[in-house]
From TrEMBL:
Keyword check for Transferase: yes
One Pfam family, short name: AA_kinase
Reaction catalysis annotation: N-acetyl-L-glutamate + ATP = N-acetyl-L-glutamyl 5-phosphate + ADP
Gene this chain is encoded by: argB
Protein purpose: Catalyzes the ATP-dependent phosphorylation of N-acetyl-L-glutamate.
Positions with a binding annotation for substrate: 40-41, 62, 158
Protein name according to UniProt: Acetylglutamate kinase
Enzyme class, UniProt record, top EC level: transferase
Superkingdom of origin: Bacteria
C-alpha cells in the first residue's frame, strides 16, 4: 500500500508566524500523499476578546455556546484555514481548505449533556468520513487541510482536532499505510519529564504499559497516548508524537520523535 501522512498541528505552531512558515515549508516538501489538521484555540480566544465574546472552559475544554460557535466557525474555518491554504499555494502545494460540513466530509453528533453541557461540540462516530471523496482528492494530488469543525442537523460543531486527525487516519487506513503525526511542543514522549533529552524513540504497547505502571508519564500526554493506541488498534500503521520542527525527519525511517506501534 502507498503511504499517507496525516499531520496535526496546534497552537505551538499556529501562534508563532516564523514557526508556522517553517512548518508549512517542510510540510509542502513531503512528496507522499498528506492531510493536515489544524487547531487555533488561542487565535479564537484573542479575536473573541476583541469582539466581546468571553471564553469559558471546564476542565480545560472550551464551552461552545451559540456565540462561541459563530466565533470558532469564523476563525477556524475561515481565517486560520484560509491563511494556511494560501501559504501552501505559494509554496506550490495544491491545498484545499475543508471543514467536516464541506462535501459531507465528517459527520458528527452533538455531544449529549451529562454532568457538563459543552454546547455545540461534535463527537464523531465510526463510518462518519466521506472516504471516497477524500481518497479521490489525494489521488488528484490535492492536499486536504481540515479545520476542527464537523456538522450535524444543519449546525456546525466544534470538534477536537486530535480526534479529527485520529478519525481521518483510521478511515483512510483501508487505502493507505497511514502514519499519524501529532506535532507538539516537545521532541517526543519523555521517559523523565524533567529531562528533555529522555525521548522514548519507540513505544510499543507493552513498554507503554510497563512505564504506565511505574507512573512515568505526566497526565497531559496520557490522552494523546491512549488516542494513539486506539488508532493503531483500529488499523493505523504508525503514530508519531514529536516536535513540529522535526517534521521532515519524522516522515522518514529514522525519526526524532516517539514512534508508536503495536
Amino acid at each position: 500500500m502507498n503511504r499517507l501522512f496525516v499531520i496535526k498541528i496546534g497552537g505551538n505552531v499556529l501562534d508563532h508566524p516564523d514557526a508556522l512558515e517553517k512548518f508549512l515549508h517542510d510540510f509542502s516538501s513531503i512528496k507522499e500523499p498528506k492531510v493536515l489538521i489544524h487547531g487555533g484555540g488561542k487565535i479564537a480566544t484573542k479575536i473573541g476578546n476583541q469582539l466581546g465574546i468571553e471564553s469559558n472552559y471546564i476542565q480545560g475544554r472550551r464551552i461552545t455556546d451559540a456565540a462561541t460557535l459563530d466565533l470558532v466557525t469564523m476563525v477556524y474555518g475561515g481565517l486560520v484555514n484560509k491563511q494556511i491554504v494560501a501559504s501552501l499555494q505559494k509554496l506550490g502545494c495544491n491545498a484545499l481548505g475543508l471543514t467536516g460540513a464541506d462535501a459531507n466530509m465528517i459527520k458528527a453528533v452533538k455531544r449529549p449533556v451529562k454532568d457538563i453541557d459543552y454546547g455545540y461540540v461534535g463527537d464523531i462516530k465510526q463510518d462518519s468520513v466521506n472516504t471516497s471523496l477524500l481518497y479521490f482528492l489525494l489521488k488528484q494530488n490535492t492536499v486536504p487541510v481540515f479545520a476542527p469543525l464537523t456538522h450535524a442537523d444543519g449546525k456546525m460543531l466544534n470538534t477536537n482536532a486530535d480526534t479529527i486527525a485520529s478519525v481521518l487516519s483510521v478511515a483512510m487506513s483501508k487505502h493507505f499505510d497511514v502514519r499519524l503525526i501529532f506535532c507538539f511542543e516537545k521532541k517526543g514522549v519523555l521517559q523523565d519529564v524533567n529531562d528533555l533529552d529522555s525521548v522514548i524513540r519507540h513505544l510499543p504497547r507493552k513498554l507503554y504499559e510497563d512505564l504506565l505502571g511505574k507512573k512515568a508519564f505526566v497526565d497531559g500526554i496520557l490522552p494523546k497516548l491512549e488516542n494513539a493506541y486506539a488508532a493503531i488498534h483500529a488499523g493505523v500503521k504508525e503514530v508519531l508524537i514529536g516536535e513540529a520542527s522535526d517534521l521532515v525527519k519524522n516522515t522518514g525511517q529514522e525519526t526524532e520523535g516517539t514512534l508508536i506501534t503495536l
